[in-house]
Amino acid sequence: MRSNTSSISAAGGSASRSLAGATIGFFIGFGAVSLFGPTAQSFIKVMQLSPEQVGLLVAMPMLTGSLLRIPFGAWVDLNGGKMPFLLLLLASVVGIGGLYWMLLSLYPEHLTAEHYPWLLLFGALGGCGIATFSVGVGQVSYWFPKERQGKALSFYAGLGNTSPGLVAIVLPLIIAVGGLWVGYFVSLVIVIAGIGLYVVLGFNAPYFQLRRHGMAQAEARDAAKALGQELFPAPSVSRALIDSATSWRTWPLVALYFTSFGGFLALTAWLPIYWGASYKASHWEALGLTASFSLLSSLIRVPAGNWSDRFGGERIAFASYCLLLIGAVMMALSRSFGLSVTGEVLVAVGMGGANAAVFKLVPQYVPDAVGGTAGWVGGLGALGGFVVPPILGHIAQTMGAVGYGRGYVVYVILAVASLLLTYLLYVTRQSPSRTKPVRTSMRAPVKP
């Protein structure tokens, strides 16, 4: 049997170093949320895209970024996270590189509607980086003891979530100076540099490193405990996903997150188009309003998490969806720029507060399958970012310029449904969960 001394020499990295690496990796990966939003107007002018086509285009990165969260997040329990993290970022490089090649060789004279499927394909690949969230949650969780996980994961998710807002500001500045293709080239360079930093800083937790060095499972667990690791992977990830799916409460939580976080992703991509089409806002005004929405909604999650601990997740969720409902009604009916800005602020605060509250409710309502439930909620809930923009585009195409505002009726409907589901969960909170007890990984849920 190997000694603990030899085990220490076999396991590299540290908790803080790996947290920094995962945060950098998630930050550059999550920036793909804004892959097309700030540049959509350029494609519209050159390729003569319809509102429906634009809606699908800006939503495409969300499709892969949402669906891949579930399998890649589960893969962490098998190898520690570094390999799936790198694969997702490399796929994103291929997607952004493909867009750069198209723009370099075709834009603007030869870029036509016939190239639209290629934009969708490269957008889907670029969006793979969004799925790094679930991988990083697992990788960070295994490094930190339980009493320090909340702070570590808040740092990880909080900084990473600011990426779309910053991209919405910086990317147009670069494009204004050097052109569209330069913007994507710089994006490509940043992602490649981020991958390099992740390779250097991101380490799997000691247990996974020791297993890779050939140590037996029980021996590696004991040695990793001696190195300070407290959390270890579940014996059956598939069982945790199946059992969480059999709890009816999982699916209202998915729907709630579909509205709040999926809706947030959708608006991050759609708002530049909305402000330009509805109020003839300048390019920079539209992007500034979009970036403000993204940053406000992301930052409000920190205090909203504390409010959920203090007042209860249901109360904060209900209040947040009320704000979302009021803001969506204002934006759907308003013809005033100032009133619509106020509506955007209410929507941002409502979505951010609801995002924090929903993940507070996950362990409360499905305590026997927290890891599996968090996977379903985070993965399927984020699909709202893919589903909603094409609907908004269809309404705009059907109704004309006024349809860009009327499209917020979609959020009115989602907010009302979310209020009803929140009330349903609250009134049934005392009844037992129907999930079977399973041994899930002891990850602390985090608000992505």
TrEMBL record:
Domain of life: Bacteria
Molecular function GO terms recorded: nitrate transmembrane transporter activity
Keyword Transmembrane: yes
Keyword vocabulary terms for this entry: Membrane, Nitrate assimilation, Transmembrane, Transmembrane helix
Residue stretches making up the Major facilitator superfamily (MFS) profile domain: 18-430
GO biological process per UniProt: nitrate assimilation
Membrane-topology annotation of the record: Multi-pass membrane protein
Record GO cellular component, one term: membrane
Broad class of where this protein is predominantly found: membrane
Family listed: Belongs to the major facilitator superfamily. Nitrate/nitrite porter (TC 2.A.1.8) family.
Name listed for the protein in its UniProt record: MFS transporter
Native source organism of the sequence: Trinickia dinghuensis
